[in-house]
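Marked as duplicate of an earlier ticket. Keeping the data here for the record.
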Amino acid sequence: MPAPESVVAAAIAQIEQGFAVFALRADAKVPVTEHGFKNATTRPDWIRRQLEAPAAGNYGLVWPETAPERVVVFDLDDGGGADRPWRDRMLDLVAQHGPLPATKITTTPSGGRHAFYRWPADVPVPAGDELFGFTVRWPGRGYLVGPGSRIGDHEYTAGPVKEIADLPEGWVAAAVAERPVRGQSVDPGVITVAGGFALPDRIPSGRRYAAVRDYVASRYNAGLGTDELWQLVRTQVAPRFEVAKTEAELRADFDRATAKIGERLGAPARAPEARRAVGPGMDAADLLGVDLPPLQWIVPGLIPEGTTILAAPPKVGKSCLVYQIAVEASIGGDLLGRRVMPGSVLYLALEDGKRRGQDRLRAALAGRTMPRGRLEIRWDARNIGEGLEEDIADWLDAHSDAVLVAIDTLGKVRGATDGRRNAYEVDVAAMARLQDLFRDRSVALVIVHHARKESTDDFLTSVSGTYGITGSADTIVVIRRKRNEAFGTLHVTGRDVPDEEITARFDDLTWTAAPGALSAASFERGEVYRVIEARGPVFPKSIADELGMERTSVQHIVAALVAQGAVARVKGGYVAAEVVLDTAEPLSLPLHSTHSMSEERGGGHAPAGTREASPVLRIVPADPTGWAHPCHWYRDHQSMHRQTPSGWTCDACYPEEGPTA
């Protein structure tokens, strides 16, 4: 059905402000007309006619190329692999270049902004479609969805200011310094591609070959070879097609776009970067006979040697975890019940200051003394490719006992793209530069990075940026914890490490081990566990009274915690369990009068007079001092557990022990 009258009125209002508009489809940011924004009009009757088309429902917005004034529009959002929220990045820019005046702004459904500013007529337009790390729109180069349009249930809304303000001189000067001016003279015998080519989010069927051709040309000018171009077309361009092409069809388009590319485009605008020399190979039979050292773990099961990406959303405790790792490595301590390899540590805490660093160090030390000369903390660093690698190499050479270098965060040392390479290429190049430093060292490089809110069950997809980051790292650790809850999970995966989920608890700037049942627990379950941990043995009624909850609700929560092994039932109430499930082979135990035979639990018949204990039910002490004797039938015997001066014991499994004074 055609666009509603409110959208037509909004489009006409934009025409009255000097913009040209054109019809978009109702269900996507795709033009209705054949030539897209080239069909934009400044006539109200013509746009009404476009919006009456059956597929129309929204409209796009451009500033006419023929207008006497030029307008630049900043697309402010958190996309494109940004490491920090756009508001924080804009505040940094305002601090550098001065305040921005109130101007025309459109709020996008994702919470971003389209901010409009007038560009000085006497200043040439910079090359590329990016300024200060944000995508920008220039007259004749791309379009925006107009205010009043709706995509699904989300609307683009106009701000209260209608006038477009001038971009301040300080910002103009910084923009020109950041990007070279678009060239005016062109050799008529050579086709050139100036600036960068920005891939649209969606490529309609009629634009598929053109997108491949333009993308290949821009990446060719960046110095990439044919094999690299083909892989990028497959992974970066093809997934954006609204109508997919087969591999053969895509390859045919690619071959057509690259045929005689050197003759058509001339020499690349930038020579390819020098590549690492390829060393001699080795026969597979010889490789099998090489005595190679095992993988070195800095924190067993969490941080191995090599490059680790530690990612989490803001404010969930990732920097506090890095401080803990750094401190425990410096003093040879424990983290989450795991012995940390001791050695020297360099921590680039680039988002902290001395006051915050001091607080986190004190929390991690918990009253212990920090040895001198083991942990160096820096609050400033040069960017990758601008001296950071040399600085880290110098530190490594000066510390033969180094075990860990941490960079917090990647966004603080990753330089801006030059407009000729996409974000994926920049990420791969940045990671390669850092990884080269640690290739022949048994040292861990931990790079702290931001993660988005999880949209799928695959935690890897939450890591911000492109697959150039996660694909290049040896190990990925993602922290998942709800902002107002203490319990969370550290998800670990990598090339050389087994996948693992580590349940942990975050309190008072420190992480501690926690029962696995609480990793994704509700807030109420976490509160119940906290009361049991602090006051146990305690019964559900007392817990309910303390928390102001219904007794029946607490009983259900306690039962779930018991079933999952986080809480134990003992004489006098419930306590936080200090046991873990044992996956060792089942063992035969004498039958006591309190045991009930169960083929379902026992896994089959046992010889007369004995019973085979299932490894699912058998437990061992998590702490050697916690239990004097491990209970062999934990779930059946919970009411028979009692505490003695030497630890917990079970009257059912050990009746001969008798009461202990």
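See parent ticket for discussion. Residues 423-438 form the longest helix (16 residues).
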